[in-house]
Write a structure and sequence with these properties.
Layout: E1 14-17, E2 21-26, H1 29-43, E3 49-50, H2 53-56, E4 59-62, H3 69-86
Antiparallel strand pairs: 1-2, 2-4, 3-4
């Protein structure tokens, strides 16, 4: 991993939106891309929709009815633990 991308190992937090359930705020597009791949490939979790970063400037994944708050929180805790212990990113499938 290039040092300039080491921030993708930053700890994640799950929050609860009153209408849309669990959500995760991310740093930028690269962080969002990596975390959505990890959630899908390693935890079989898909988000329902994301913020429109072109309008809002935010990078947020909302899970709505696709996953419970507890399921997202469990995955995030495991991701944080893996990053903390291994100091490296998860392996995800490369795009072709």
């Amino acid at each position: 991993m290039l040092e300039e991308f080491r921030y993708i190992l930053s700890p994640l937090n799950v929050k609860k939106h009153p209408e849309w359930g669990a959500f995760i705020e991310l740093i930028d597009y690269e962080h969002r891309d990596y975390i959505e791949d990890v959630l899908c490939e390693h935890f079989d979790l898909d988000y329902a929709f994301s913020s429109n970063e072109y309008v809002t400037g935010d990078y947020v994944l909302y899970f709505s009815a696709n996953a419970t708050f507890e399921a997202v929180e469990k995955a995030v805790n495991e991701i944080n633990h893996y990053h903390n212990i291994n100091n490296k990113e998860y392996k995800v499938a490369p795009y072709t």
